[in-house]
Amino acid sequence: MSADTTLMPIPGPVDPVPVPRAATSRADGKVELIGLPREGIRAALEAAGLEPKQAKLRAKQIWHWVYNRGVGHFAAMTDIAKVQHPWLSERFAITRPDVVEAQVSSDGTRKWLLRTHDGHDFEMVFIPDADRGTLCVSSQVGCTLNCRFCHTGTMKLVRNLEPAEIVGQVMLARDALGEWPSSPDGRMLTNIVMMGMGEPLYNFDNVKQALKIVMDGDGLGLSKRRITLSTSGVVPMMERAGEEIGVNLAVSLHAVTKEIRDEIVPLNRKYGIEELLSACAAYPGANNARRITFEYVMLKDKNDSDADARELVRLLRHYKLPAKVNLIPFNPWPGAPYECSTEERIKAFSNIVFEAGISARVRTPRGRDIDAACGQLKTAAERKRRSQMDEQGARAA
Ligand code: SF4
């Protein structure tokens, strides 16, 4: 990560948090078309000098090529006059994030370390299952929230990802999986979780703009029922997320007492468990057919007792939440402050919740051979870069 990480507090009525400066514009001065709504593409073409009618037609054609065919350059757009291709490519870009590293695990999990056009690294993971394939998408480079079990939480927030960089992750995954032209049948990539690096509700506008494009039926076409937004509990933004984006909700709960959740998810000091669960109960569109997922990382002797499991059941019942619980065996990294609960403990915890009539699936750890826990690949790549620099320095000396 480069050192230009100056944070500035943004005063705001909703939720003042430290955020970084905005992304820099592209070095080549071109306008990135990925991530713009259709209307935005049309407006950009018109601002560059196209007649309004032509801008509208070209926007429609470009949208089709980009989101249905996965085309990454204007020369391939055969229904646009050849003479116009250079004019377009001098002014506009259709780019994906750069791939710094791509890994495939023995269990089929794929992980990418990606880089923004201004040189910041972030991660994306694809998890194939028998009946679905889930892409875990990042919303920020780094994170402000410092959840203690999370490796990304040890990194500083550098900046929010732009809509282009969020949509670009989905497009890049489609490229890698060979899933163009876009068609809903037989896809490997069927689901998206906004659960990668960052807190999506601290990058609300960009996440919303990006997901609208991902959900557009005349393009990437993923149904809102197959998209899940995961939050650590940014209570003031949850209702808006339900109303304006409308995707499924997952909440990183991870503890059932104030003391422990304050430690594991420090945001709890600002928005406590009661406030969070009330906001979940009011989440637009949640019902028994579209349950809210409660993520619960299993930490040895921290949050994994029978009493914790019973309290979890009590809370979910008390707030009448249409809930399913996802128990996540902790995936430690070097220097992590916790250990994973034992298998027996996880099973006992799961049984208590399950016997109360609430689904409590234990998530199978995936991609352990490729550092697939969030943030690990980025750190591993930085370590490698540093040691290469050390070697070069030693050779030069
Ligand atoms: S769990 Fe999510 S919100 Fe918490 S530090 Fe990690 S990336 Fe940030």
Chain-wise SSE layout:
Blueprint: E1 7-9, E2 18-20, E3 31-32, H1 38-47, H2 52-69, H3 84-91, E4 92-93, E5 98-104, E6 110-115, E7 121-128, E8 133-136, E9 140-141, E10 159-160, H4 163-177, E11 191-194, H5 204-215, E12 227-231, H6 235-245, E13 248-252, H7 258-264, H8 273-281, E14 292-298, H9 306-318, E15 323-329, H10 343-355, E16 360-362, H11 376-396
Parallel strand pairs: 3-4, 8-11, 11-12, 12-13, 13-14, 14-15, 15-16
Antiparallel strand pairs: 1-2, 5-6, 6-7, 7-8, 9-10
Helix pairs in contact: 1-2, 4-5, 5-6, 6-8, 9-10
This protein binds iron/sulfur cluster.
What does this structure look like?
- The chain is α/β, with parallel strands linked by helices and 397 residues long.
- It has 11 helices and 16 strands.
- The protein has helices at residues 38-47, 52-69, 84-91, 163-177, 204-215, 235-245, 258-264, 273-281, 306-318, 343-355, 376-396; strands at residues 7-9, 18-20, 31-32, 92-93, 98-104, 110-115, 121-128, 133-136, 140-141, 159-160, 191-194, 227-231, 248-252, 292-298, 323-329, 360-362.
- The strands form 4 sheets. A 10-stranded mixed beta sheet has the order 5-6-7-8-11-12-13-14-15-16, sandwiched between helices. Strands 1-2 form a two-stranded antiparallel sheet.
- Strand 7 and strand 8 (133-136) form a beta hairpin.
- The longest helix is centred in the C-terminal third of the chain and has 21 residues, at 376-396.
- Mean pLDDT is 89; it is low at 1-16.
- Residues 143, 145-147, 150, 152-153, 197-199, 232, 252 line the site of iron/sulfur cluster.
